[in-house]
Records
---
Amino acid sequence: MIISDDDNKKPKLNKRTEKLSPSVTEFDMTFENNIRPKTFDSYIGQTNLKNMLKISIEAAKKREVPLDHLLFYGPPGLGKTTLACVIANETGADIKITSAPALERPRDIIGILMSLKAGEVLFIDEIHRLNKVAEEILYPAMEDFYLDMNTGKGQSLKTLRVPVPKFTLIGATTKAGSLSGPLRDRFGIVHRLEFYSDEELKQVVKRTADILNIKITDDGAVAISKRSRGTPRIANRLVKRVADYAIVIADGIVNEKIANDALDNLNIDKFGLDTTDRALLTVIAEKYQGGPVGLETLAASLGEDSKTIEEVYEPYLLQEGFIQRTSKGRKLTPYAAKMLKLQLDDMQQSLF
Ligand code: ADE
């Protein structure tokens, strides 16, 4: 169940439908719900985390207590919501899904806590954006399963202690560092989700193609996985785009050549970088002589929001060794400089 109080409080979605941004779009929400794995067996990747979760779930069952509250952090698109749904399913619990911007007023968070059933999972996305008041309402609910509610005014002001059904909170964030200490400390399990390997992404691609009745060869799946930035959300989006291309241009079968042609057409290079990634690297190289350049200056040069750069684009560029973060700002690595030069040479060659 996806909770949102009214239209203004819907989880904030990225309405852009660009090919590669791992941010969630409204299209993704429906698409992802249709193909979401429901069990640990069908959830690919994040092996260490899955093993640890299986033990925690088993232990909670044996002790007959709710599973500890969990915090998942890491770049967007790696399956934090999906994993929360898997956990709920594996524990036989219902899940309520919401996001911090939808919990602006005290009554939003109180309402959702009061509506929970015993054992239910509450998933709060972007939990680092929870305001102070909401956080303080959450603390006793997380710790001892009660809410402090004020009634009356002035001299007749009373605080009522209201019990909340025992629940498991799963918080997700792309910015673990922005979470307040007291909130972070109330999670029993805090875990980072990792980028997926090419092999894991290949399995994701094949699974999705299977569900969508798309014919794909092994090589075709490998080609898509290599350009998916370690991110299943991107891999799943690309499967659909490449399948469309295969139907229009060829016989509908996604093989290596079709996949590579389609991805070239979408302006996704062999490193999985899209036009924004390349613009970011090129600006640092050309306008700031390789850096260092401050995040805000870089964002202004690109006409992008600094948060989007930091939370969406940078994590993969950092992990793949294209950029470095220094105390003075972002710097291009020699590896990225070499890659940009090679791409420029390729472009010049294809012109002549
Ligand atoms: N789709 C998105 N993430 C997935 C995952 N981890 N396993 C299988 N399918 C997925």
---
Amino acid sequence: MKFSDFCKYLEKIEATASRLEMTSILADLFKQLSADDIKPGVYLLLGRIGPLYEGKEFGLAEKTVVSAAVAGLGVEKKVFDKVYQQLGDVGEVVYKLKQQSNSLFKTDPDLSFVYQRLRKIADLSGKGSLTAKKEIVADMIREYPALTAKYLARLISGKLRLGFSDMTVLDGLSWFLKGDKSLRPLLEHAYHVRPDLGLIAYLVKTKNLNGIETIEPEVFVPIIMMRAERVKQIPDIIEKLGQCLVEPKYDGFRLQVHKKGNEVKMFSRNLEQVAYMYPDLKQAVLEQISAESIIFEGEAIGFDPQTDEFLPFQETSQRRRKYDIEELSQKIPLKLFVFELLYLNGQSFINKKLMERKAKIRSILKSEPEANLVIAEDHLVSKTEEIEVLFDQYVSEGLEGIMAKKIDGVYKPGAREFNWIKFKASYSQKINDTIDTVVLGYYYGKGKRSEFGIGAFLVGVYDKNLDKFCSIAKIGTGVSDQQWRELKHLFDKNRSSNKPKEYFVDSQIVPDVWVAPKFVVEVSADEITYSPVHTAGKSAGYHKNSGFALRFPRMVRLRSDKDVYDITTVQEIGRLVKI
Ligand code: AMP
């Protein structure tokens, strides 16, 4: 396919606000793309150059793309700036100036060729790479047609926001195969095992459903992590699970470890590669794991080597830093409490029962008291009182609470189900647990906070049924002066000149500045209440014409380890208030 034809599809997608129509445009695009083009095509649709977990980026700020565009268009910077002031979007400016210039474009390249050039931009690194990257961008803008140049400028500056999620692509694939949404669960499962939409699309295109049904985990490709449901009180655990396995809930960060031979990679919950931050754990994996290839999971938590006590999350999380790694690993050593086995020596374990996975991981992890890798403690229980005793004991040891697991449960990638139930110590009187929210926008501060330029922010939760982020609270407490400054800086880097497309964010409240839904903030509150101005759960009619709201919400912490699709859902809140 010509890249210019691909751009016509982008234009069509952009012009529609209907998700259904968008899905059918995608299905049509998948039909037109050849087997060779579908993988790069899908990455580019999502504004990426490869699967998310590869973490490959163009490494060019919008400012740099602008200067490359100025060179490519052969205009003066001030001409560009003037049009930019009117249009506010680098792609639109490139399009307009390109059309005005009347210069005939030289080539109308194929998608695969453009993809190779884009990959080259992402691959270049080191000295002189910035100039080389800029030259490629300038050449492309100079040589290619206006519409192509417009979308390339947006794509490279990270501003290709077509307003759909990975899930919409899966719906598109389902429509492509069957003309409706019915294959989405199957496709979603495949995606949770191998979160590479390009690969999934390629398999669908070349093998129909056969490629999807037989999909298996692969070492060094992260598996979307299974998550826990929650209940309101401890007796509900036995009611849901019967006899179950209870483990401590460690308050650190989850790691999925992949090893093949002497190579080790680690992934965080949002699929970032993080092994470089934890040389101590990497070494421990090599020393303590006796397997050729393996995927397993655990929770890493800092401990005080003098007292052997766990450290609070705030201290542990200092280890998630990109610099001073050696020094920090001395100061805050980590223990990784291993609780899952997902793959071993060529064989997937995700469909095996919990007790079998546990027994196997025990047999291949050499655990000694002083070691950095330790098997998570577990207890087989069948009575509420037993769980209560364990809960009190763990909380008094500085742990967060308990995780109760279904003994014959399989590992369901990406699922949040009652296979795992978390029960945490209360942060407040009435809600037992904190809520993970996404930041939707912020307000300029008043009084003292005007100095920071931010005084509160609007947050939302995820509506799984609507695939939208819906507002639930405005937060102005629990944030230190230093944190306000940091939040303002972070949010500004991702501010959005207008409300993200309707079907992505649902909010009647309009903050002073919209922020692209990227940041996860854990909040606590006294109660879940209702409010006519918030949209969380509103259309589902949980309570008259109101949505859910939080009473006395306060920020607990920024959760940079969590992905926005990993946050609390409207449906979970619905269950919490109903119980
Ligand atoms: P939450 O982040 O509140 O949804 O709780 C689920 C998280 O608890 C998991 O993603 C892990 O990071 C963490 N966790 C701590 N201890 C355990 C455990 N024993 N089993 C599973 N997850 C655990």
---
Amino acid sequence: MTNDVFIFDHPLLQHKLTMIRKKETGSKEFRELVEEVSSLMAYEMTKSMPLEKVEIETPVCKTSSYVLSGKKMAIIPLMRAGLGMVNGILNMIPVAKVGHVGLYRDPETLQPVEYYAKFPGDIDKREIFIVDPMLATGGTAIAAIDALKKRKAKHIKFICLIASPEGIAAVHNAHPDVKIFTGAVDPGLNEKSYITPGFGDAGDRLYGTK
Ligand code: URA
């Protein structure tokens, strides 16, 4: 595995990931767990963010204290399952802007086609977190990164709950500058390109569809 994959090993996060994987977990609990795991991931990812000292006044006296400095952030969920991760990250980073990208697979060419994209105007200056619960074949992730780079985005990270080795290799091959953050790397994909063992179809499990 390359250095450019970070696996979140926090015990709380790993415990919640197990609950997410279980087939008995219903949509309500699944949504809550995905949100909680996303908050924990945002917390972990921001632990090395730069700080700057500012002068403030408490009700008691003047003092200096710290605030976040560095680049502003943007969360870009890949529709539709990525939407399940947005609120969890916003709970930790409420000032982040949210952009959206929608891609479908052309049934003939099997290539991802962009059907919707709306990004913050200053996307080129922001630190970008693309979010999708699953990094499976990597096709959608690569197309989303392409869509962002076309708009001059530079500082891109990909965050998922579970990744496959195939997806990681594909993203790194196409975009070696994009670091991947994941809760687990599962052994591989089945014949339907589902991550195995994984947790099934993330969109269906979030929204109760089939
Ligand atoms: N998308 C999903 O929702 N699940 C997988 O296992 C793979 C892709």
